[in-house]
Write a structure and sequence with these properties.
The chain has helices at 9-23, 42-53, 96-104, 128-148, 155-160, 163-167, 170-188, 218-224, 266-271, 282-290, 331-335, 346-353, 357-372, 406-413, 435-450; strands spanning 34-38, 57-61, 73-74, 82-83, 88-89, 109-111, 116-119, 210-212, 229-231, 236-242, 245-250, 254-257, 259-262, 275-277, 291-294, 296-302, 314-317, 327-330, 339-345, 381-384, 397-400, 420-422. It is an alpha/beta fold. The structure holds flavin-adenine dinucleotide. Residues 38-44, 61-64, 69-71, 85-88, 90, 235-236, 263-265, 268, 273-274, 296, 298, 385, 387, 392-393, 396-397, 424-425, 433-436, 438 line the site of flavin-adenine dinucleotide.
């Protein structure tokens, strides 16, 4: 869940420049190149769409049996599609996804993050005075951290080094850690013990509201994928590149092309499941090591009836254990269906990913019973994600670990010769960790090829 709201002029100009490139038909006349795009997520689909529309011969190789990647709408509950990956367009103003959603005619609903209720650890509702005191302490801490943060420090180290931290009571620390979890760890998918104190939020944002897709985010990826040559279940194992072109070995076939756009997630690049021959340049390998592979997981619980306040959009709970089921989204508010969506990020999400579904649901239900009492019904059904264990992602999205910054992402996104091009959310200097960042990175990679 992301909640920041401004668009820097430089970021806005970059988007305008990217879009201008693509509307200038005269610039791209030679379409004899063949291009293969690895990955049918937003970056890959964005790239393939641009190239196809300009007459290039383009093929997309996707390892999964579906398109979309980390945009993943499940229709397991046919009457209520749910997004197990991305949910929101973060900032609709000037966001290229707004244009796509308009073209595709997709319904969107605004989220109001101020429409929330906060529960204390014992399940009591926190009143306005309690909430504003917590917020005041948090604001003071943020100011102190910005003075304290130094290169090489994690966010946790910089928090603990502030004079104000030492003065807080154990309860106050727990309350502040709650805010840090839901506003920082959920947003960047990294833990405070692993994110860079200086660069954790090194990114830009679009202005305007955040919107959800009640019919599922996949409406956008489906729209982008129309008429594209996409081959599913082609798991890329090796990419060999040289003066003569590129050869790609998958679990099924060999493919050749003049150029390749690689949109593999940072988790997959870190894992080394795809071999590059010759190996990628040293600076790119360093970037792969430095950029963090973050985790945000979701659990949708469908109940026989609504037992919570259906007029509130977000339900927050201050946990004793850091990051445990701190935030829930009331899906009933948007769909009228008795569904809650719980989030976990970073350390706690990592801890529970190896549990069985039943253990995860039981843990979530203990928390809901603390808040709403023992009489609430058990869920009829559930759906959940385990993004770190997913062999086509090994993460939810990237974060800036120690030493990582927008420059590192630039290095990750650099082309290798005129053969290998890179896109994907982790390569986005301005909008990492987002659907629009992934999309724009794909559009930019396509635009670079079209200018060759
Ligand atoms: C739980 C969660 C919540 C999120 N919430 C939001 C949100 O609300 N708003 C937002 O803007 N962003 C959100 N994000 C981030 C957003 O989903 C991603 O940044 C974006 O979708 C990434 O797109 P991509 O094309 O870079 O990567 P991907 O979508 O991962 O695409 C890469 C593709 O490569 C494929 N692939 C991997 N390995 C191979 C292989 N060996 N061979 C062939 N294909 C392979 C994958 O299957 C995948 O389809 C969220 C992500 C998660 C996980």
């Amino acid at each position: 869940m992301k909640r920041r709201e401004f668009l820097s002029l430089s970021a806005f100009m970059a988007v305008v420049a990217a879009c201008n490139d693509l509307t200038d038909n005269d610039k791209f006349k030679d379409t004899s190149d063949t291009v293969i795009v690895i990955g049918a997520g937003m970056a890959g689909l964005g790239a393939a769409r641009q190239l196809r529309d300009k007459g290039y011969s383009v093929k997309v190789l996707e390892g999964r049996d579906r398109i979309g990647g980390r945009v993943w709408t499940s229709r397991f509950w046919p009457e209520t599609p749910v997004d197990l990956g991305a949910s929101w367009i973060h900032g609709v103003k000037g966001n290229p996804l707004t244009k796509l959603a308009n073209e595709a005619g997709v319904t969107r609903i605004e989220t109001n993050y101020d429409n929330y209720i906060l529960y204390k650890t014992n399940g009591e509702v926190a009143n306005a005075k309690f909430r504003s005191r917590m917020q005041r302490l948090f604001d003071q801490l943020v100011k102190a951290v910005s003075r304290q943060a130094e290169d090489g420090m994690t966010l946790r180290e910089s928090i603990e080094a502030t004079p104000i931290w030492a003065e807080l009571s154990a309860q106050e620390k727990q309350q502040i850690m709650h805010i840090i979890n839901v506003t920082v760890e959920h947003e960047f998918a990294g833990g405070i013990g692993e994110m860079s104190a200086v660069n954790f939020d090194d990114s830009e944002v679009f202005g305007g509201e955040d919107v959800l897709f009640p019919d599922g985010y996949a409406r956008i990826t489906e729209y982008l994928s129309r008429d594209l040559d996409i081959q599913l279940e082609q798991i890329v194992e090796a990419v060999t590149y040289g003066d003569d072109g590129v050869t790609i070995k998958t679990n099924q076939d060999l493919f050749t092309a003049d150029r390749v756009i690689v949109t593999l997630p940072i988790g997959v690049l870190k894992n080394g499941t795809v071999k590059f021959n010759p190996p990628l340049p040293a600076e790119k390998q360093r970037a792969i090591l430095t950029i963090g592979a973050g985790l945000l997981d979701k659990l949708f619980l469908r109940f026989p009836k609504i037992f919570w306040n259906e007029k509130v959009e977000i339900l927050d709970w201050i946990s004793e254990k850091h990051g445990r089921w701190n935030e829930w989204l009331n899906i009933a508010f948007y769909t009228g269906k008795p569904i809650l969506l719980g989030f976990n990020a970073a350390d706690y999400a990592r801890q529970i990913e190896s549990w069985s579904d039943r253990e995860i649901v039981a843990d979530a239900m203990r928390v809901l019973r603390t808040i709403y009492g023992n009489d609430i019904p058990n869920p009829e059904s559930w759906q959940l994600s385990r993004w770190r264990l997913d062999p086509f992602a090994f993460c939810s999205y990237s974060f800036n670990g120690i030493g990582a910054s927008a420059d590192t992402r630039n290095t990750l996104g650099k082309a290798v010769g005129n053969r290998l091009f890179f896109a994907g959310e982790a390569t986005s200097e301005d909008y990492p960790g987002t659907v629009h960042g992934a999309y724009l990175s794909g559009v930019n990679a396509a635009s670079t090829i079209m200018k060759l």
